[in-house]
Amino acid sequence: MKSEDRFDWSLFFILCCFIAVSCIALLSAQESSQYQENFVLKQLTWYGVGAVAIGVMMIFEPEDYRKISPYLYIFGLLLLGALILAPASIAPVIKGQKSWFVLPGAGSIQPAEIVKIFTILMLSNIIVLHHEKHRNSTIKLDLLLLGKLIGITALPLFLIMQQPDLGTSLVFIAILSGMILISGIRWKLILPMFLSIGSVGVAILWLVVQAPELLDKYLHVKPYQLGRIYAWLQPLQYEDAAGYQLIKAMKAIGSGQLMGKGFGHREVYLPESHTDFIFSIIGEEYGFLGASIVIVLFFFLVYRLTTIANHSNSPFGSYVLVGIISMISFHVFQNVGMSIQLLPITGIPLPFISYGGSALLGNLIAMGIVFSISFHHRTYMFGED
Length: 385
Description:
This protein is mostly helical. It has one domain. It is built from 14 helices and two strands, in the order ααααββαααααααααα. The chain has helices at residues 3-6, 9-31, 39-57, 62-85, 111-133, 139-161, 166-181, 187-210, 212-218, 227-233, 244-255, 278-311, 315-339, 357-375; strands at residues 101-103, 107-109. A two-stranded antiparallel sheet has the order 1-2. β1 (101-103) and β2 form a beta hairpin. α6 (139-161) packs antiparallel against α7. It is found in: Membrane.
């Protein structure tokens, strides 16, 4: 089969649609932004870097990524550790977080965005190795696998919480959850675990609202540290503080109504609209229909990734795709959800659309692995495919 026939043109077309949406939204955002920068040009530059990365990554087969996954994972942990120890001249504290390396001439790089991919590769490798070694599953072996997956995720999660970066930490938890669901672990173990975690989350939220003094007394969580939660639940009471962006985002989306106001006809000023709140720009200028098209585009992406995973004859590749699907799905759900008060604001960008070199590069590296899995898929004469 020719190389051009093996190339995933469907996925390529979906990414091209994201490029168009991103550039149009950013072009509008930069016209009313507090920054005097050409975000469209920078975004296209990062897309170009990502395209080169995808081309290089397609050279290697999924088995190659499986072999180097432990080394990439260790390298990622070293990057996160170095970020914590680095001086402020290299890793400054920005908005209360020490999450970026500042490189002269290259801008800022957020290691966690790349480490997410390394962690997905490592988790996939661990699942494959476990099933290759243990053909017959038992409860004890399932608990062993569960411990491995949690341990692998806990190391980068701990380092990221030191920054601290709650939003990215939640992405790692989402990735872990997706991997656990398809790892083959018995539901009699998974279901109680998820129910327990959900119950703890509801209990903590209840304490935040009804008894914050108990959190201060036993967990030393101060009321001001819960500002984002209070602003999420009652944004009007915190309009001049933590609730400012949420109120502006909802006004922007609501004012777009069905058809939107049209390109460049924004009336609601929203800080940082080119990054975390790019969806608000789309909602205001293109209304419910435009916002729905963007969400449908993400559905097409997830559907395509799911199709590739189902047809992959590499178990490792299928697990990797589930991790990537979990990562992207959580990003979209959280970003859109926080713009309409469905979820608290956590500073998670909208994949492929929000401005941000590290986040975009991380997502395109993930797509490079997907292209590799699709490109190197083999069909056997007596196989199922």
